[in-house]
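Quick look at the format.
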Amino acid sequence: MLKKILIAIGVLIVVAIGGLTVLSFVTGTECNFEREIVINKPKSEVFAYAKMIKNQNEWGPWFKKEPTMEQHFSGTDGQPGFLLHWKGVKEEVGEGEQEIKRVIEGESLETELRFKQPMESRADTYLTTEAIGENQTKVKWGFKTEMPRPFNLIMVFIDLDALIGKDFSDGLSSMKTILEK
């Protein structure tokens, strides 16, 4: 009897592992998040503020989670090659780098995030500005990354768009408040 129970448990484990393996291959690996907001200021003013990585300490959601995190900067802020290295104590802040990769003046900022702690990963972020009126600017802030298998199964069980998207929405709302003062 005990032998039959152990065999049944073994079969269930093999079936579960097999099912998760198949699920990891039918689930995509690409994660994309984007949020947008309209700021009642001219596009040139919004972009000049948004392209400066150091300004993220005022509007970005992560500095607010741990304002005492260590930060080191190198290069010219707002220009390709500018690098921010941060190290926090809280797991949700972790440690990593953000590097400006491309700036199209007045239009877009592209950066690369390299997370070191709590888990190594890489992501691309972008911020775009679009004039929708003389004193109105639509700002889009997005994030793109790949989730390797089997870690991509997280996307099946957790709504990462809602989780990370909340931080992006909060950050854009803070930027709007700051710029519209």
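Next, a different chain entirely:
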Amino acid sequence: MPAAPTTLAALRSLLAARFPEKTRRLAGVIPTGVEAVDKALDGGLPVGRLTELVSTAPSSGGQTVLTHLLVSTRSARQRVALVDGADSFTPGTVQPDILRHLVWVRCRTPAETLAAADLLVRDGNYGVVALDLRGLAERALRRQPATVWYRLQRAAEGGAAAVLVLTPHPLVPAVPWRLILRTPLTIEQVRTPRKVLAARLAVEIDRGHAAAQEELAG
């Protein structure tokens, strides 16, 4: 198993070769394609900020949001980087064309995942950087120092990417926007068409971070 620095060095070289020029800085929001999420965020994921989406149950809609985000950004021709902390993403669940704009980084540990996300956010070539921490051990996630998160927040500020952090429980310190999916989906709901399922998702806004949101907006 290669060490994290070697892995990140290889990723940095790949990015430099594939995207020799930085993309133009974006502004505003990036719609996810899920009405409840976009409504809660006044239109979509805020560019230059972190948004935490907490799925408190294994089947509470986090994967549905991620899939719709891939479809929405593909339609808008925006590049997306998915940093997959537990190597759990299944490409076969989406149409191949949806994956053409996606860079999928498969990781093994929280430290490696956060380091890769920091690199991709700073790279400047992505409309969205999605950091999926679901499936990683809670104890290992809790051991990550707060300074790592603050570094990622600073990297995102004023940058070209909207950063979506998918977590199994509230995790990101002082995040401006935290949305929570609490209701697990039934077997019948999981089998419903993706668009219908997305329309039924119930999103809760963590009111404890409303003050931080207002400060950033001001």
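The radius of gyration is 16 Å.

See the schema section for token definitions.
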